[in-house]
Amino acid sequence: MTRPAVAPPEFRVPPVDGISLETRAAELATRSIKKEAKRQGLLMALSMTDLTTLEGKDSRGKVTAMCRKAICPAPGLPSVAAVCVYPDLVSTAVEAVRDSSVAVASVATGFPSGRTALDVKIEETARCVGDGASEVDMVIDRGAFLSGNYGLVFDEICQIKRACGDAHLKVILETGELATYDNVRRASRIAILAGADFIKTSTGKVKPAATMPVVLLMLEAVRDHFLETGRLVGVKAAGGISSAKIALRYLAMINETVGDHWMTSELFRFGASSLVNDLLMQLARLDDGNYQRPEEFSKD
Amino acid sequence: MGKTSKTRTDDASTPQLKFGERWVYDAAPQSPEVKIRDKYDLFLDGEFTAPRSRKHFDTVNPATTEPLAKIAQAGDADVDAAVAAARHAQENVWGPMSGGDRARYVFRIARLIQERSRELACLETMDGGKPIRESRDVDVPLAAQWFFYHAGWADKLHLAFPGSKVEPKGVIGQIIPWNFPLLMAAWKLAPALACGNTVVLKPAETTSLTALHLAQILQQADLPPGVVNIVTGDGRTGAALVRHPGIDKVAFTGSTTVGKEIQRTLAGSGKDLTLELGGKAAHIVFEDAALDQAVEGVVCGIFFNQGHVCCAGSRLLVQESVHDMFVEKLRRRMERIRVGDPMDKNTDMGAINSKEQLARIEEMVAVGESEGATLHQSSCSLPDRGYWFRPTMFTGVSLSHRIAREEIFGPVLGVLTFRTPEEAVEKANNTGYGLSAGIWTDKGSRILWMAERMRAGVVWNNTFNRFDAASPFGGYKESGFGREGGKQGLLAYMKCHDDPLTQG
Fold it and tell me: Of the residues A86, A174, B4, B294, which has the fewest C-beta atoms closer than 10 A?
C-alpha cells in the first residue's frame, strides 16, 4: 500500500472561545422566521435533508420504502437531497431511487466507530462506490486524533478520498467524541485539507450530536478555507435536528455566517430521519392554518 | 479629508462571500403589548399626581419621530412635594421597617417586573429606539435580577460588613440616563430600597415611560406611599432635585459634564454623592486571541444598544500582526448587522435615541474624517423616518485624534494598533476615563497581567458587556466614583459605623 504525500505541515488553527461562540449561536437561534420566508426555509430544509436509516434492523423493504418517501415526501413537494444507508443496502437504494434526483449516500470505513484496518476501510469505500453510491460518509479515526496523531487522520482521509473516485466524500468528525471546540476546529481543518467535499458533525450514534455552536465553528472553517483558496467545502449537520424549528435556526446561522453559497443542498445537508415529517407538518400548516395529525404523514 | 470606503473594491478573482439573495427574512414585528396612556403625571406619595407646574411635554418614538405620550414637567414645587413625601416615608415607615419586611416588597417588585416583562420591553423599545431583542433579553431580565439580588440583602446588611453597624443614608435623589431607562432605574432603586432609604427618582427627559410603568408596578406591589417618588422633566427638574436641601445623597448616572456640575453644586453641602459617568473603553485584541469570537465581542462592545453604552468598547486596540485580518473580519461582520425597525424581532441595531444625539454622532464622525482616519460604514439601508446611523468604524486612528479621546456615545468604533503588551497597557490607560476594558487573549497569564494594570472599574476577558447584580460596576478617573451592584454597591446607600459591641 502506498502512503500518500506527506501531510501538510500546518494543522494549526486559531483558538476558539467557547463562551463567545455559544453566545453567538444562541443569538442566531432567536431569529424569527415568518410567512413567506418560513415557507421558503422549510422547503429549503427539506431539499437539504439526507433521509437516513442506520440501524441493525434495516432491511431491503425498509430502505425501499424510505427511498420512495425521499423521492416524494408528500404530494407536490420536492425530493430530499439523498438517502443515507449502510453499505450492504446501497444497491437496494440505488435501484429504488433510479430516475430521480435523490442521491445515494453510504456510510463507510467501519461506521460508526471506524475501528477497523485501513485496507478494509478502503475496500468498503470502493465497494459502496462500485454499488452506485455517489456520496460516501466516512468516519475519522478519533483515537488517532485524540492521541495527537493528526498525520494519520489526514492520510486516512486522503486514501478514502482516492477510493471514492468521483463520489463525494463527507468526513464525519464525530464532534461528540472530540469534546472540545478547539478539537472540532482542528479536525475540520485536517478534513478540509485532506480533500473532504463535506465535513459532517456526527454519526448520530454519539451524544451530543450536532449542536449550533459546533456547526457555527465548522461553517467558519469552510468559510476561511474558501476565502483562502476559493474551494467550497460543504457542511452536514447530523443527529439531534428533529424539528423544523431547529432546522430554521440552522438555516439562519448559515444565512448570516457564510451566506448564499451554502444555502443549497450542494453545500449544506441535514442528516436526519424524523425532521422530514415535522417539515411536512409545518408546511401543511402554512397552507391550511391548522396542524394535522402525525398519522397524516408517511412514517417511512 | 479622510478616506472613505463603503464598498469593497477587490478584483473579481478574490473569493467573495455572497449574502441576501437566497433567503430574505420577512418582517417579524413584535405586537406592542402595552397600553400607553395619552398623558402621564408625576408619581408622588404613592399616587399619580398632576404637576403643579401644569406643564407636559411630548415623548417621541425615535424610530418614527411620532409622539407617544405627554410627560409631566416637574417644577420646584413638585420636587418639594416629592422630597417631603420621601422624608416622611423614610422616617415613619420604610426606615423603621425590618429588613425582612423590606425584602418582601423588593422581591414582589422583581416578580411583577417578570410578569409584566413583555409590556416593559415593548415600552422600552418604543420610547428609546433599542431593538426589542435587547430590551426583551437584556434590559428587562437584568432589571428583575437587580431587584431579586437586593431583596436577598435587605435582611442581611449587618452581615455585609462584619463589625459595623449599618443604617440607611436617608432620602436619595437619583438621576438616571436615557440609554437603559428601566435598567438604570432598577440599578438605583433596588439597593437604595433594600438598605432602607427612600427615593426621588428623575428619569431622563426622552425616556420616562418605563419608569412610570414601574411606578404602576410599585403601586401593584403595595409599596408604602412616598418610598419611591418619580419626578419627570428636563434638566431643570434634575437641577432642582440636586439643589434641594431635603435630600441626603445624590446618585447620578450620565455624562461627565453634568456629573462635574453636580459635584460643584454639592460641594460643601454635606450631601453624599456617587457618580457613574462616561467612558472610552479600550477593547484589546492580542494576536493569539480567538479572533472569530473576538469579532463578536467587539461588535457587541460597540454596537450593542446603538453604542449608547457608557462602558462601550469604543477604542479597539489590535495587535499590529493581526490588524488587517481582524479589520477585514470586522468589516464583513458589520455588513451583517441588521439595522432597522426596533420592534422587529430580527433587528440587531435600532434607532438613535434622539435628534440631538444623532447630531452629536454625525458631528464626531465628520471630525474623524477631517482628522484623517479612514471611515468604514455598513452599506445597510436605513428607514426613511426616524433617527438612524450606520454601524461605523474608523481605522488609522491614533491617540491624538478627538475620536479616540472623546466619548461619542454612538455606533462608532475607532481602531488603533499596538505591538507589545506594555504598549497596549499604556494606550488603554491613556484616557481621561476609566469605566471598563476588554482583553482578548488565549493566554491565561496575560489575562491576569493585563487586568492588574488596567485603570478601569470593570475588566472583561474574552467577553464584553456582561452584567450581573452580584458584580460591582463603576469607574476610575472621570468615569466617576462609587459602585453599583454586589456587596460594594451597598456602601452607596448605607452608613457604616464601627459597632462598639462587636469590636474587640
Answer: B4
